[in-house]
């Protein structure tokens, strides 16, 4: 019974890791950054228009407040996948280093 639960837990972690990795590798993060750039460009245009109109300018008028939609679960999953990525990366480097030593 414990063996099945352990295998199920490992399988779940692998699926979560692959899902998060897939979202990251397909540009979700880059799309969010591009959206921020677009909003910034809009604020720059608004700032320039306000200067032309002679309005009072305040930094607070042009700041975008970003909402954090992350949950404890998503933060935990992202942290877990980052650690798993580090472990896999270290293991692959170790293996190739040993293989390189054998070849020499």
Overview of this protein structure:
The protein has 104 residues and is mainly alpha-helical. The protein has two domains: 66 residues, no CATH class; 35 residues. Helices cover 79% and strands 0% of the residues. The chain has three helices and no strands. Helix 1 crosses helix 3. The chain starts with a helix and ends with a helix. The relative contact order is 0.08. The model has no long low-confidence stretch (mean pLDDT 80).
Reconstruct the topology from this structure.
Blueprint: H1 2-25, H2 28-53, H3 72-103
Helix pairs in contact: 1-3
Number of separate strands: 0
Spatial separation of the terminal alpha carbons: 46 Å
Q: Mind summarizing the main beta sheet? A: none
Low-confidence stretches: none
Helix/sheet category? mainly alpha
Summed up, the helix count is 3
Order of helices and strands: HHH
Global shape: elongated
Task: Write down the overall mean pLDDT.
Answer: 80
Rg result = 23 Å
Assembly category: single chain
Q: How many domains, in number, for the residues?
A: 2
Share of residues in strands: under 5%
Share in helix: over 70%
